Amino acid sequence: MPNSSQTSIKDPFMPCKNLTFLSPNIMRGLLAICIFAVFSICYFSSLPGSKWRFNYGEIRIHASYNQLTNNGGDQETDISHILFGIGGSAKTWNRRRHFCELWWKPNVTRGFVWLDKGPDQWPETSPPYKVSDDTARFKYTCWYGSRSAVRIARIVKESFELGLENVRWFVMGDDDTVFFTENLVNVLNKYDHKEMYYIGGNSESVEQDVVHSYTMGYGGGGFAISYPLAAELVRILDGCIDRYAEFYGSDQKIGGCMSEIGVPVTKELGFHQLDIRGSSYGLLSAHPLAPLVSLHHLDYVQPLFPFTNRVAAVKKLISAYKSDPARALQHSFCYDLTRNWSISISWGYTVQLYPVLVRAKELNTPLRTFLTWRTWSDNPFTFNTRILRLDPCERPVLFYFDGVEEFGNGNTLTRYKRPHDAYWRKCESKNYKAAYLVKGFNVSAGFLDPRIWNKAPRRQCCEITNGSDQRDGVVQVRIRGCSQWESVTPP
C-alpha cells in the first residue's frame, strides 16, 4: 500500500495512453470524425449571417451590416445613411413638434419619433412615429427621475432591430432638439462608420456634468452611434439598464453601457445641450470653432432673437444656415483702427460693435448672458465666460441678423440691424455716440467649404471694406481666409 504522505504526480499524457487498447481502425475513424467536425465549424462560422458564431449574446446582425465591409460602404456618408431616434411622448408632441418640423425633411430624413403610446391623431408635417415596447419589467430606482428614461434608452435597440437597410449611424435626440443635418453629415464623415464610434457633447453646466457624467454624450444635444457599436450595445443594453437602475437619464444609462463596451465618447463641440438658463446669446455669439450640429432646450432659454417667439427665432436662424450651412454661427472679428472699433461677427446671428479696442482673448470669450441649469448660478461652466456689465459704456452695441442674399459666384451677403432700443440705457460718451449712428452691417463672405473641418481649425479673418464712408449708416465687412502670417492684433 503506498505511503499516504507521498504526492501522486499524474502524467499529463495518461488519458492518451488509455486509448491504446482501441483498434487502429477505430482510431482512424475517430480522427476522421474530429477533422470533419473542425472543418465544418470553421466553414459554417465563415458564412454571412451564420448563427455558428462564438459570442455572448443572441443579437441578430442584419444584412445591412454586411454593406459596411464591401465597396459600397466606402462612399461618403449622406443623410440617407443616418437613422434618427427621437424621444417623445404623446402628451408633449403637439407642443414641441414645431421644433422638429423645422429640420425634418419628408422623404429625405430617415427615422421615427418614439412615443409612450399611440396618439389620437398625427400631423402630416411630423416625422413618422412608433410606439415603444413596454418597459415595466426593467428596474428604475432614481427617486427624482422618470421611468421614461428606460423607454428612451431602448430607442437605439428598437431602431436597430427594425433591420432597415443602408444604416451607418443611429442618431438619438429629444423632441425639442433641432438638428442641422448638413453639418451633422459632415461631422460624421470625419469618422470611419465601420469602426465603433460614440460621438456627442457634454453639458455646458459643470454641476450637470458632475451629477451625471463627463464621459457621455448628452441626449438632448444628440449623439451618434456607428452601426458596429450599436450591434455591441443592443446585445447588452437590457441588462445594462437594470445594472444602472439608479441613473437618472436615458443618456446616462447609455453612457454606462459604453463604459462596459470600452468605447469613450468622441466629443464634437457643435452638439449643444444648452443646459443653461436665461439667454443663449453669449454662447452663440462666440460659437466654438466647429460646425453647428444641434441646439436643445429651446423651450427653456429665451428666444434666440429679440421681439419674436421661440419657434420663429429658430426659423430665422435656419434661414441663414440654409444659405451656407458650414458657416452658420462661425465667429470672426476685426478692428477699425481709424475709429478704434472692435467688431465681432457670429455669422447668420449677430454683430457686436465695441467703440474701443478689445483684445482677441476677450472677444473670443462668451459673454455671460446665462446661468447654470440646475442652481441658476453665474458659474461654473465647461468653458470660460466674461461678465456682461450693467454699465452701457462697458457693453457692445448689438446688431441682429436681418436677412441673407446669395450670389451666383459663390458668395453671400448677410444683413444685420440694430433692434429698437428706446427702453435701453445708452452710454453718453463720445465714442459710443458715434457707434449709435451705425444702422447696420452688411457682411459678405464666400461659401465655406465643409471640408475645411477636416483640416486643422483656424478662425477666419475679416476686414472693413468701406472705411469711414458710411453715408447710409451701414458698415461693409468682408469675411475671408486669413493670409499667411496674418493675425488679429490691435496696437
TrEMBL record:
The protein's Enzyme Commission number: 2.4.1.122
Pfam name, any one: DUF604
Molecular-function annotations in GO: glycoprotein-N-acetylgalactosamine 3-beta-galactosyltransferase activity
Keyword set includes Acetylation: no
Record carries keyword Manganese: no
Keywords: Glycosyltransferase, Membrane, Transferase, Transmembrane, Transmembrane helix
Stored Gene3D superfamilies: 3.90.550.50
Segments passing through the bilayer: 26-44
Record protein name field: Galactosyltransferase
Native organism: Handroanthus impetiginosus
